[in-house]
Design goal:
By secondary structure, the protein is of the alpha/beta class. It has seven helices and eleven strands.
């Protein structure tokens, strides 16, 4: 049995967030209602809200939770396209996690109704390629105090990882193709479409290290 703490990864997608937490020292179990063959850790195919947060999974205590409920209800792109009828999964996720005593983090996009979030940016982690930096601001809400590594460094061209990588018009020079997306995001195990919805592992490795430090400090107190 592993002596690493276990993190439950809800709405896990292809495992960008999970990979960062694993690098920070966690074992991972994911939950997603869609088949995720690219997910690099054990996974349950289930509705994340219905699955909930059990105290133990396969006899192992759950020590922390990350949740990335779908952001389409709140994303600027969805609103610009008139997609305002998507289900709000952020609110029930928060209601579920707020009952826990273990550390939890919810991630979502700018514009989502997050409570006292921090914001992380690709430029904070020097996620860059020759022609620009990763533009991928994400909000993180938690029941523990989270810090940021420093201010954004928006120097040079901002490049986004969204859509199918074939952006035209004004987006042509600001959209990463498949190879650029893998390099910018630090994700080399998944296809372009999966990467579009993922978190860069650098973000959650940074956050996971903070949680590990809190857990270790609690053991010593």
């Amino acid at each position: 049995m592993s002596d690493r703490p276990l993190l439950l990864d809800l709405f896990c997608g292809i495992g960008g967030a999970a990979t960062g937490y694993h690098r920070a020292g966690f074992d991972i179990i994911g939950v997603d209602w869609k088949p995720m063959p690219e997910y690099p850790f054990p996974i349950f195919r289930a509705d994340a809200i219905e699955f909930g947060v059990p105290e133990y999974i396969n006899g192992v205590k759950v020590d922390a939770v990350h949740a990335s409920p779908p952001c389409k209800r709140f994303s600027t792109l969805s609103k610009s396209l008139g997609y305002d009828s998507h289900t709000d999964l952020l609110t029930p996720t928060r209601e579920m996690l707020s009952k826990l005593s273990i550390p939890w983090i919810i991630e979502n996009v700018p514009g989502a109704p997050m409570r006292n979030p921090i914001i992380l940016c690709g430029s904070m982690f020097n996620l860059r390629i020759e022609r620009g930096y990763l533009q991928r601001h994400r909000l993180f809400e938690s029941n523990v105090l989270l810090m940021v590594p420093g201010p954004c460094n928006h120097t040079g061209q901002a490049i986004g990882v969204y859509g199918n990588g074939q952006g035209g018009g004004v987006l042509k020079d600001r959209t990463a193709n498949a190879a650029e997306a893998r390099s910018l995001m630090g994700i080399d195990w998944a296809g372009r479409n999966g990467i579009t919805q993922a978190l860069p592992p650098a973000y959650t490795e940074y956050l996971g290290c903070q949680i590990r430090q809190l857990q270790e400090a609690k053991k010593l107190s």
